[in-house]
Design a protein that fits this description.
- This protein is α+β, with helices and mostly antiparallel strands and about 425 residues long.
- The chain has three domains: about 100 residues, Uridine Diphospho-n-acetylenolpyruvylglucosamine Reductase, domain 2 (2-Layer Sandwich); about 170 residues, Uridine Diphospho-n-acetylenolpyruvylglucosamine Reductase, domain 3 (2-Layer Sandwich); about 130 residues, Alpha-Beta Plaits.
- About 30% of the residues lie in helices and about 20% in strands.
- The protein is built from 18 helices and 16 strands.
- The protein has a five-stranded mixed beta sheet with strand order 1-2-3-5-4, covered by helices on one side.
- Strand 9 and strand 10 form a beta hairpin.
- It is globular, with a radius of gyration of 24 Å.
- The relative contact order is 0.09.
- The C terminus is likely disordered.
- The structure holds flavin-adenine dinucleotide.
- The site of flavin-adenine dinucleotide has 31 residues, from strand 4, helix 6 and strand 11.
Length: about 425
């Protein structure tokens, strides 16, 4: 069996071919405590991510600590080599593959740096995996609510990089609404805290950035207001509307611009995120879930816009392909079967959460249950007719309380209620 010391020993893999390690690889290996991987097999592994793209990187470093990151960035700068930060590599548009030196944060940079339960904030390193963070927070009755589907793999650095969202973003917002500050390293090596402009910005470099941004924001105010899409999650371009928010949900609670929001969604092109401070939320006390079955995919899609007006915490669409895949998995089949009425083309999972379970049940039943029309016409009238033709899952019709159940903080199909 390997001893922990043996496991922690840095790996140095260089090309076996004539010439061996490049000067860049040698410099990195000499100066870093972490792994330096320049061999074909490692570069092959890092040439892919969750996208369809494939680009072989120059090499890979797996930093042991933040000092390693700073050294790697400095060496890359001296050698004029591009760097590409990588968390779990689950982005789907090729963001983590490139002709660059890859910095893989996911192995060692996973620590909690600071936690304030009263203020409900936490500062973590970029490689912290979302599920690990939420497991850490659970005993404190808190969680980080940007619940991305790939929560078992995705990292806070990657989520910040691509402004991730989750199935509960209609309630909690996405990363741009939940990142409070980012300790970052700029391309020239400047280390700076990107945070609320509530407190004075320190350092000439950052002060210059802020004043340039403010000049652009003032000059282009009308253009920005006209052209920036008014959608909750936007990654097409930088959040230069941070001084005049165009997002349907305010970026900050106090209305003061926050420089961290410039880095959120910037895909690592502006800075390397060293430490990220997040806004936390209390864990929901109770959750209830309804499953609405639709005979056409179109109807399910069309109904979502009306269902969100009922203020659920989550609305998740599951199409026939996913239903079939879930049914073909013996672990999921029994649960999924309970949620289906015949052979729906799609289902919508609709969740409500709150402190009072008794108050949640009617919220779930009234809008979704076709038979409720006689009992709650006011509530139903607010809904378009086609929504009422969506049917709630089997079992719900037998007894109302079966439709709603306490949802013990879990995720996924295994938690479908009956
Ligand atoms: C099946 C599937 C389901 C998905 N579901 C969702 C979903 O529900 N919601 C959603 O938003 N996305 C979803 N995604 C996309 C992706 O999984 C998430 O966006 C995830 O949060 C990305 O995290 P990551 O750690 O893999 O980031 P990566 O892909 O590793 O990186 C994302 C970006 O951040 C940059 N970055 C990483 N670390 C740093 C750093 N330290 N400093 C600066 N930049 C950095 C990278 O360069 C890259 O541009 C899904 C993907 C798959 C394959």
């Amino acid at each position: 069996m390997l001893s922990p010391t043996a496991i922690a020993k840095p790996l140095h893999f260089f090309p076996a071919s004539a010439g061996g390690a490049s000067p860049l690889a040698q410099l990195l290996a000499k100066n870093l405590r972490g792994d330096v991987l320049f061999d074909s097999a490692s570069r092959g592994r890092y040439s892919t991510d969750a996208s369809i793209y494939q680009i072989t990187p120059i090499g890979v470093v797996v930093p042991r600590d933040q000092a390693d990151v700073l050294r790697a960035l400095e060496i890359a700068r001296d050698q004029n080599v591009a760097v590409l930060s990588r968390g779990a590599g689950t982005s789907q548009c090729g963001q983590t593959v490139g002709d660059a030196l890859i910095i893989d944060n996911s192995k060692w940079l996973c620590n909690v740096i600071a936690f304030d339960a009263n203020a409900m904030t936490i500062t973590v390193e970029p490689g912290m995996v979302l599920d690990h963070l939420n497991a850490w927070l659970k005993p404190h009755g808190l969680w980080f609510p940007v619940d991305v589907s790939t929560s078992a793999q995705c990292t806070i650095g990657g989520m910040t990089g691509n402004n991730s969202c989750g199935s509960r973003s209609i309630e909690y917002g996405n990363m741009v609404h939940n990142v409070l500050s980012v300790d970052a390293v700029l391309a020239d090596g400047t280390q700076a805290n990107f945070g609320s402009l509530n407190t004075p910005v320190s350092g000439t470099r950052l002060q210059n950035i802020v004043s340039s941004l403010q000049t652009i924001a003032t000059r282009e105010r009308t253009e920005l207001a006209e052209r920036i899409p008014k959608v909750l999650r936007r990654v097409a371009g930088y959040n230069i509307d941070l001084f005049d928010c165009q997002n349907p949900r305010a970026y900050t609670d106090d209305g003061v611009a926050n420089l961290a929001h410039l880095l959120v969604g910037s895909e690592g092109t502006l800075a390397y995120s060293r430490q990220i401070t997040l806004k936390l939320c209390p864990l929901p006390v109770h959750k209830v879930l309804g499953v609405v079955n639709f005979q056409s995919f179109y109807k399910a899609m069309d109904s979502a816009q009306h269902i969100v007006t009922l203020k659920p915490t989550a609305v998740e669409l599951v199409d026939r392909t996913m239903i079939e895949l879930a049914l073909s998995n013996p672990a999921f089949r029994p649960v999924v079967e309970k949620a289906l009425l015949g052979q729906p083309a799609a289902i919508l999972l609709v969740e409500f959460a709150g402190e009072d379970h008794a108050a949640l049940v009617p919220r779930l039943l009234l809008p979704l249950h076709p038979r409720q029309e006689a009992r709650g016409p006011d509530r139903l009238r607010a809904l378009p007719h086609h929504l009422r033709t969506g049917r709630v899952a089997q079992g719900h019709r037998r007894h109302h309380h079966r439709q709603a159940t306490q949802w013990p903080g879990g995720r996924g199909a295994g938690d479908l209620c009956r």
